[in-house]
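Possible regression after last week's pipeline update?

I re-ran a chain I had predicted before the update to compare outputs. Posting the input and the new output here so someone can diff against the archived version. Not blocking, just want to make sure nothing changed silently.
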Amino acid sequence: MDPFIFRDREMYCEDVAIREIAGEIDTPFYLYSSSAIEEHFRAFDRAFQACPHLICFAVKANSNLAILSLLGDMGAGADIVSGGELYRVLKAGIPGGRIVYSGVGKTEKEIKEAIEAGILMFNIESLEELDAISRQARHLGRRVRVSFRINPDVDSETHPYISTGLRENKFGLPMSQALQAYIAASGREELEVLGIDFHLGSQLTQVGPIVDAIKKIRPLLQRLESSGIRLRFIDLGGGLGIRYLDESPPGPDEYARAILSELKGLSHTLILEPGRYIVGNAGILITKLVYTKQTRAKKFYVVDAAMNDFIRPSLYQAFHEILPVIETDGPIYPTDIVGPVCETGDFFARGRPMPCLNTGSLLAVMCAGAYGFTMSSNYNSRPRVAEVMVRGSQFKVVRRPETYADLIHGEEIW
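New output (post-update):
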């Protein structure tokens, strides 16, 4: 299902014309299709129906309460990496028993909050973190469920900033420390050792790396069994990619077949943490053309969205298709599409073939549902934008745009 389609040369989200939404809500704004989110979740869930599993949505991809609530109602859990994400997930109605907590820098305050929330388990990433969780468990008089995130040293062949499974990355314990860590944890009464976890990174476009990681993890599972440590969960992380340009990522069915084939003979419950796959293609950023600028060197479209609203093109050199909301005929020219922030790096596209557009024309930055709003900021004192969700023929603002007053909330002159 493509939730963003053209009818009579005008872009719609489900059954709502985007021009109609922009007539009521100031640009720029993020726009999400609830039907697409539901469809992507169901496709992932069906792919693993042959084995016990829990899908924990990677909250870092998109943490809007409406999206979290929608997924929670469908049975999703949550993969979190901060106390703020824990707070959001609980507010959205996802129970603690469906939450896994990853991340290399959990503070003792965050650990305490997660224990009190009764989360399913912590994915521990260092031996010092193990000690911190033990301290908080004893302090609270709780027995806490834990897993260890193992770094399998597998190249996910994705952007280096979002690759997490190599030995030089900060994530997880090296394989050489794993057995020692499990034995240490299993000897502590305040801990219940339940699982093993690994995550290779984001925007994976082939199944080979995850198959290689499982091949490395299976011997460790056997050594743990021989040491009397029997685990219930295997957390495979997330990272399944989507198509931005010409990528050909595997679909959930191909992904699941490869994983289940490598795990044949094991009875563990699988935990899967998709984020981008669920929301990436279900969201777009709508922006408006403010000025056209022609120099001797090139043509610029200056739009009202900026790198503070959507940083992926600047940060990752990521490609995102950009489409006029109203299709137009005429000549095509190489164009830089840029924002108003005071940085040369404030761009959405460079030399992109674009038609001639008038001031006020709407543009859609496609595939912006993941790592869009969640990575936005107030740089240049720009208020963060609205988030809007469509359901059939209706739409609703699910996060109001910030005001200037919001920018200085909490500040004081001294």
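Follow-up from reviewer: compared with the archived run. Residues 208-226 form the longest helix (19 residues). Marking as no regression found.
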